[in-house]
Fold each of these.
Amino acid sequence: MTTPKTVAFSKHSTNLFFHILTQCNLKCRHCYINPQQHGQNALSLATIKAWMAAFAENSAKTNLILLGGEPTLHPDLSLIVKHARNTGFGSITVDTNGYLFHDTLAKVEPQEVDYFSFSLDGATRKTNDSIRGDGSFDACLAGIEKTISRGFAASLIYTVSSVNIHELEKMGPLLKELGIHRFFIQVIGLRGKAAHQQSVGAVSERLQVPRAQWLEMIPRVAREVAKQGITTIYPKVFLNLDEHFECAGLVADNYFIFPNGRVYRCPLCEDFPIHSLQFRENVLEKTARFNEADLFQLNIPEGCVMNKLVQPQNLKYACPGKPEYKIACCLLKEEIRGQ
Ligand code: SF4
Ligand code: SF4
């Protein structure tokens, strides 16, 4: 079955995107980490445990994703993972650029980590390294090999932009060769450095992929990869005018936690101090209005309000006030199970 299934938002599961530090060894061109908004500190093990405790009640239904920066730079990552498993989180994923510092793989067991999730943004060294930095392609492939040979499951995330979409079709054979279990195609969001690049207006580098090209290529490549037995997930991005729009901020349970204590419900809000929750003295509290939650309530013909505010170049209008299509919530995904 190669028909994509829209992964509907569910209030019955929670996703916790926990940035345990913002430090990183790489300087990717599209990095969304914004130290001014997210902090520059690494959280202590004690603080991480305290913040995890705020979500412990529903832990069995909670997917924990540990992120950075580069989370393997955190010297206590293995202890964080073990504590998360003991807390009973439904799944634990560690996102990494592949460098796997502090001998991470030797300090955790395959039953403690559901997935190591690697980021690669090109099927060739040349393209990937032009985005993520010299040496990052080889380091990522070596990290994947080591991870899989030690019995862990591995995912791969490919962030599609105008500078690497031409290599997406080449990813299928590479994923198969590497033994990847899940493939995530991501759309570049205009956040962090990518937002800056776009705003300085390098005409030669419009990072976002036009709608026609996205619709022609992404579902087709996803189907091809899934046929090789690799479950493939990609964002829906565009909705026809008659398709139902939902804002995950209202109907789903996602938390994006940063080391400065800010907790967002929407990733597109992360460049602005409009987080709706905040850890204060290790207690998760609602922030004062105005905040992102006020934006979630707005009903506009273009679909996602934040998209219209931060990346309106995604939209096209038949006439003023009448968009040709809607932009879906950036968290709405299509999934094609590997067969
Ligand atoms: S590996 Fe991730 S956190 Fe590090 S620079 Fe690249 S995108 Fe940013
Ligand atoms: S991306 Fe748009 S639709 Fe999704 S949570 Fe944010 S504001 Fe809501």
Note: The chain has a mean pLDDT of 94.
Amino acid sequence: MSTFNLFITLLVSFLLSSFVSSYSGNDVQLWCNQTPNPQPCEYFLTNSPTHQYKQINQKSDFLQLSLQLVQERALIAHANTLSLASKCRNPRETVAWTDCVELYEQTILKLNKTLDPNTKSSHVDTQTWLSTALTNLETCKAGFYELGVQDYVLSFMSNNVTQLLSNTLALNKVDYEEPSYKDGFPTWVKPGDRKLLQASSPTSKANVVVSKDGSGKYTTVSAAINAAPVISSGRYVIYVKGGEYNEQNDFTRRSRAPPARLHTVHMNSSEVTPCNRLPGDFEVVTAPVIAYWGVQ
Ligand SMILES: *[C@@H]1O[C@H](CO)[C@@H](O)[C@H](O)[C@H]1NC(C)=O
Ligand SMILES: *[C@@H]1O[C@H](CO)[C@@H](O)[C@H](O)[C@H]1NC(C)=O
Ligand SMILES: *[C@@H]1O[C@H](CO)[C@@H](O)[C@H](O)[C@H]1NC(C)=O
């Protein structure tokens, strides 16, 4: 075996890689099949002139492409929602519609932030922004149901943005890396927060305590979040005691008030099931040991 063989191999792989400058329908199918919603993924990637012929060599390329796709579809969905103003038949429908316009705007902001090359974001940040974006869309839909007007305007708003967004969440999650630790805490936990969690009675430093066993003020994280003040002069700390909190679906409710800025939720337990969908005002970062929820 000689250098010559190696050279040939290198040359062949070089040639191959330069040929893979655009993808065929089959490639798209292969990549999309790794997502929870392959149909809309394939449908839009094969039909959109903007996204055709982009190079996909690795998963990160595909994630980038999927993010661009969902951004494009969300912009279209936002424009479509705006155009439906005159279709609202009554004040309740108008309220639900107005909320949706804003929620689509918020979704686009998160997507733009995720895609902005100047944003220095970790996988966890990206996951947080994408989850918030997804929650916004669910809240939009839930608004029509809550107000009992789901039968008309909502049907004109049908699109595949939710599915495409879920795909990006799934793709990003694969690349999730465990955070690094210092003194038993993930490095992103700020020193002040570390002190709080290490205090001999951290619950006494919290504004409210959530506990499954009823020893706190609330038994669910969502109840504590929904009851948190909109404006707080300092940091508002919700301490969540160890236990299993399976509340993903309760977080679709968004506070209609101006964004609360200073909320933090501390969770003590590796047993706590991390919830990653929180109302728009909250961001979530989960870690195996504790989870820290607050606004960045
Ligand atoms: C959603 O995606 C499906 C393919 O999965 C497509 O047939 C349908 O037209 C899309 N809907 C919209 C509103 O674009
Ligand atoms: C988000 O990005 C798109 C595409 O670059 C741009 O057209 C849009 O104005 C941006 N929206 C906001 C709110 O930044
Ligand atoms: C976390 O919870 C465990 C039991 O669930 C308890 O022993 C421990 O002291 C708690 N840690 C803090 C910092 O509250």
Note: The longest strand covers residues 263-268.
Amino acid sequence: MLRFIQLLPQVSPKGDFILKDLPGSGKRIDILCRDLAACFSWGPITWLKASLELIAIIADTTILTFRHPGDEIPQNEVGWALVIRNSLREQPPEWVSVSNGSVEEIIKMYSNPPESTLWVLDEKGSHVSEIETKLHITQNSFMLGNHKGFNSQTEELIAKYKLPRVSLGKKSYLSSHCVASIISEFERSENVE
Ligand SMILES: C[S@@+](CC[C@H](N)C(=O)[O-])C[C@H]1O[C@@H](n2cnc3c(N)ncnc32)[C@H](O)[C@@H]1O
């Protein structure tokens, strides 16, 4: 299982955004729509989609956990936005679960090295090629910031739990690009073995 954790501290947990204005009314909910498309639609080539999970932490109060939608896969950004909106309005499809929770609770759940490692995706971390050997001896989760990166509360948690930082290079990429790159990194290393 490969897991992505997208932090969205500014998004409202009420699901009250307008479909025609996702970045503005949704306070950058478009980031999550693109992550989901990268994770379950165009990102994986050989990696089993059933072995992917994407968690969105909304406003540090609400957790949406997305698994492979199968035949119900949304076809575009608005389709994903509808799924997110319905889930936040207590009408999730079977492949989305909704719960209460915070960034710290999710960190405690998935950062249990050496069995389970929570990596922070950060331009300034160790390059992914340097940690490649470690990736195969642990269950991996990758945490992503929003368009502004990580806020000060999250930075404090990253320091408190000593979360390792991993980089895809010095350039700042869209989080959807990071999701797809991590999946291809795993696909590539599986093919090498
Ligand atoms: C659009 S970027 C945020 C850019 C923001 N200017 C910043 O300073 O963090 C969204 C998230 O994608 C991830 N990210 C972007 N580029 C990356 C890279 N080169 N390596 C690792 N993670 C990256 C980080 O988690 C980042 O918080």
Note: The longest strand covers residues 116-127.
Amino acid sequence: MSSTAQSTPVVSPPGQDEHRPAFPFESKVLTRLTPTLRKFILLGKVAIVTGVTSSGGRGLGFNIAQSLCESGIRGLAIFDMQQQLGETAAREMSKETGVDVRFYKVDVRDEHEIAAAVADMAERFGRIDVLVNAAGIAE
Ligand SMILES: NC(=O)c1ccc[n+]([C@@H]2O[C@H](COP(=O)([O-])OP(=O)(O)OC[C@H]3O[C@@H](n4cnc5c(N)ncnc54)[C@H](O)[C@@H]3O)[C@@H](O)[C@H]2O)c1
């Protein structure tokens, strides 16, 4: 077993989410990547993730949003119905990673709310590269 695997705590009980802070992307890692691997990072991209709240769920969207912020993106929109939890998630991720993370109160069943939020994102960032749909009801 590698030392990294040994130092990673096992989530207990299995399946329960564990809150951990996100880490900022460090541009110095670029110098250690091969030209091929450099094509696989998300430097400067802009993403939307639906279904992101900071706690209380198993948080697929939350964990995906954190991963994107750690992968070099410059802008992220969180679309979720839960305003308070969504705003907290956006604030925390921004603070931890330096990425411009914005919360939009959006019910993904409402096409008008989606259109307004997407238009605002496109205007602010000039592009949208990634969409991850994680909004849903787990049980
Ligand atoms: N967690 C898993 O292991 C797993 C596995 C397979 C499938 N899924 C599916 O993935 C989805 C997300 O799962 P999760 O565990 O992250 O759930 P979660 O409850 O932790 O998060 C779901 C998020 O979606 C948001 N949401 C729900 N309805 C919405 C709507 N109409 N508009 C906007 N936001 C909305 C909630 O506010 C919440 O933030 C669910 O549909 C679940 O069934 C989850």
Note: The first strand starts at residue 46 and ends at 50.
